[in-house]
Write a structure and sequence with these properties.
globular; about 20% strand; 4-stranded antiparallel β-sheet; homodimer; alpha/beta; about 375 residues; 7-stranded mixed β-sheet
Chain lengths: ~375, ~375
């Protein structure tokens, strides 16, 4: 994968995912905030590797990146050699095999975020509808569809942000966990979209940023976005929320989601569930901001959400240094599940959903189904 | 401060604090587990600096280290030149001034741990009782008293560990936070003393070790002690406790304390309070293991415990690397307060204290008063 340096400015129009010159450019989030490097992905394998190592992360962002990855399976537009596509590879069987291999590869990268699975299922339908027209027609259809997903995700986040801002009040001090910003989506962000929209109408005084161990998405990514947006913020360790809430320094908690089950149970970055428990204890609203694409009608409850376990090295080694004895092992669960009863409301692109969530989620998803 | 390398083996008799060759040797905990370096402290200033930078930490350990620091104020035994003590400095007024300056310096190092304040108050009484005999007599009395504190702390922790083991059951999976081991005391440890005693009678299956950001005392120090004691353990990020408890993987939580107020409210490493809230939600016992020297009858409740705020750099920089944008600020509260109602029991050297804590703590402290 080739790379190029950039100087991104996350503002209203920033996206960490861009189709450029027949390839997929991804801002490598593992290197932020020290370096702004874009990866030029030309093959589905490049995209899968970027998802797996968290160069692109966040449920909506990996859904959109995977969509472009499916289009890349069929070549990168005209330049057959660059795409490694030989002429004889254009038989319909060979094209189908290439597409399916890419779909399987991308689907296997990360198990928890439902947007990934959902994007790949949609992509399979787009391919099935256009495969008969040949490789190039299917490629163009997939690319148009990926572009549409990209635009729709940004639009969904803007709607979601506006709905969220209605819930906020002047002077709110808001706590967030991990990164659910423009970087975690095709643009604008979910939890940070709500914060950005609320800030835009003068409703946010400051943001408490959980650093979010082990990979420090809060310290590295959320702090980077808030710095560039000019929104006042303060970094804290993940274990500080209890003290902040005890001292009355938090008015609202808002987080994103990797998958919301049909009953409202929510998988999100490890550490979200403790925040929800603490917010309830202190009578502080706890919101989950997520587009409907993150809700999964096929998963009845949190018990059925697969939780990714990542490499123990992410915990034992920090910034390249081993900080713990060589013989010490670690358990690195990437997500936890917050039971629906602890969620004050879901802030979605179809409005604010309130309990009972089984009903409000089913209604929102039903209304969103294409007629 | 001169240094020498060692190869410590925390076992039943290990202490991170040792009087050697007329000076105070402190195992530099900021460099564990990578290096085992002992600091040779010859002046109260050396001890104060070691406490401030957390080369020695843990409420009981800093109480004992400060006691030796007071003795060092009066010279380091015979060798006047090494101690920088001139003959004319032996006037009773000059000795008193030197002692008082050391007491003030040591007392100001860290505000939360009550053992420090308590040790310095006791040291003042020892000095007052022996100052009339001249510098050398007072120095010897202080040194004997510091040695006694050292021995008594180890003995208290052994008693406390035995009481704690009675509460544990076969196969327990125990979660602990920060380091309340031999390293945090004069030896044997409080929370880790309980774990060690329980393990010794076959009652602990394994230990979940919270890494304990920002300074990673769990990942660095608790993991080091457990490794050397041969006790099975697994490291997790501080935000993992909710997921572990949800999955039924934790049978007990046991932590140390920096100060227990008269009503049982407990200041301990930031992140302790969220653990107590989560343990309560999941019906898992939450124990605080602390010698009576950590209980403070003069502090009515947690609201009156001063909470140290440490340098933001401890949060923004990890292992020497800046991980967050240059303009991002951090709040670094070193401790939080767990309300007494969330504590299942206090495990002390005078037995297990149960609610109502106002009464059980007063009774235990009253019985411990010297007749």
């Amino acid at each position: 994968v080739s790379e190029h340096r950039g100087s991104a400015s996350p503002g209203p129009d920033f996206s960490p995912i861009a189709w450029r010159d027949g390839g997929l450019a991804l801002l490598d989030q593992t290197r932020l905030p020290a370096e702004e490097v874009w990866l030029d992905c030309r093959r589905p394998e490049d995209v899968a590797a970027a998802i797996q190592r968290l160069s692109v992360r966040g449920a909506p962002a990996i859904g959109v990146a995977a969509a472009y990855g499916l289009a890349l399976a069929l070549g990168s537009g005209g330049d057959r050699e660059a795409a490694g596509v030989a002429a004889e590879a254009d038989s319909s069987e060979s094209v189908r095999r290439r597409f399916e291999a890419a779909a399987d590869l991308l689907a296997a990268t990360r198990p928890t975020a439902v947007n990934l699975r959902w994007a790949i299922e949609q992509g399979r339908r787009v391919f099935a509808d256009h495969a008969a027209g040949g490789r190039e027609a299917a490629r163009r259809a997939l690319l148009e569809w990926a572009d549409r997903l990209h635009r729709e995700d940004v639009a969904a986040n803007r709607r979601l942000g506006a709905y969220g801002a209605e819930l906020f009040a002047d002077g709110d001090r808001v706590l967030t966990h991990c990164n659910a910003g423009a970087l975690a989506t095709a643009g604008y962000g979910t939890a940070l979209g709500v914060i950005q929209a609320s800030w835009g109408v003068g409703k946010v005084a400051m943001v408490w940023v959980d650093e979010t161990r082990p990979l420090l998405q809060g310290a590295r990514l959320t702090a980077w976005e808030l710095s560039r947006l000019g929104i006042p913020h303060k970094l804290v360790t993940d274990s500080s929320a209890g003290a902040l809430l005890s001292r009355g320094l938090v008015d609202r908690v808002v987080v994103g989601a990797d998958r919301v089950a049909a009953n409202g149970d929510t998988a999100n970055k490890i550490g979200t569930y403790p925040l929800a428990v603490l917010a309830r204890r202190h009578g502080v609203p706890f919101y989950v901001a997520a587009p409907l694409s993150t809700f999964d009608a096929a998963t009845p409850s949190g018990a059925e959400i697969p939780i990714e376990e990542r490499d123990a090295l992410e915990v034992t080694d920090v910034a390249g240094s081993r900080l713990t004895p060589a013989e010490t092992e670690a358990l690195n669960l990437a997500f936890d599940v917050t039971p629906a009863e602890l969620v004050t409301a879901f802030i979605t692109d179809a409005g604010v959903l309130e309990p009972p969530y089984g009903e409000s989620i089913a209604r929102a998803l039903g209304a969103a189904e294409p007629g």
